[in-house]
Write a structure and sequence with these properties.
With about 100 residues, the protein is mostly helical. It has five helices and two strands, in the order H-H-H-H-E-E-H. It has a two-stranded antiparallel ribbon with strand order 1-2. Strand 1 and strand 2 form a beta hairpin. The mean pLDDT is about 80.
């Protein structure tokens, strides 16, 4: 009788399968057919692993100061347990320095 895979083993297996799919250059449909895997199962694991993956660090474009000042909205940024609120009338240069410092936390 075959042993049951643990959740961690299943997750690792599907990470490897998704990497193989990507490296193959094949469409999902063709790859699934070749490997005897239902497309619905592949999509399930692809979505599940994507949802579990931590967000990649990076920059996002924020509204310009004039647009933010017109709406009167503040911007809230949270990262690594640190929360910063940038008010609509905040100095852009100071905001940039604070955001860079926050990224180092």
């Amino acid at each position: 009788m075959a042993e049951q895979m643990t959740a961690a083993q299943r997750k690792e297996m599907w990470q490897q399968r998704l990497e193989q799919l990507k490296a193959s250059g094949m469409t999902q449909k063709d790859w699934c057919r070749q490997n005897g895997i239902p497309e619905t199962t592949l999509r399930y694991w692809s979505r599940r692993l994507k949802d579990e993956a931590p967000a990649e660090p990076g920059w996002i474009r924020l509204e310009d100061k004039e647009q933010t000042a017109e709406t009167g909205k503040d911007i809230t940024i949270s990262s690594s347990g640190v929360k910063m609120i940038i008010t609509a009338d905040a100095d852009p240069a100071l905001s940039r320095r604070l955001i860079r410092a926050m990224m180092e936390v």
